[in-house]
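User: Here's a chain of 194 residues. Predict its fold as tokens.
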Amino acid sequence: MSASIAADRARTNADARLVALARESRGEALELMYSAYKSRIYTFLLRLLADPVGADDLTQDVFTKAYQALGSLTAEHKVLPWLYRIATNTAIDHLRRKRRFTWLRVGRLAGTGEDPLMPDHHGAVPERDQIRRILATLPVEQSTALLLHSLEGYSYKEIADIQNCSVTAVRSRLARARRAFRDRYATTEALHPS
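Assistant: Prediction complete.
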């Protein structure tokens, strides 16, 4: 038996135990789920939002929603993809609300000179921040699919289940995300060479 098959069986068994525990004690099930998956959900949201405080707040929201939905889990559910689906929907809702309420700094409106006249390039932005900024410009469905596939290692089918869409939609989202990311990264590199 290969290591990946054994790992899949162990995850399936752990998920089944968690679902059974949720039937007996939702509080204990949530504690176990939170300790097992909090860091993965937080990291996913941080990569998606590029905002540590926002990612932390949304992580709490994800587990609150998971607690409320624990009764809907069945023995066939895989817990981590289920949590990613909740996280994805929570992030999409957050980003849509954020777009509706965009604040402008008063200095920009009044021309008070609050901002420097010349841009300051003395502290070059590390590449990690550049990647976060580029991901933030992509539509959330595309950036989510890209993160789930490239960093979390999910298959197209698994991403389709998490995003509640077809495999064809996932292929399209990934192709568009890769193209847009590559173009924006190249443009940023041309503007700010190392």
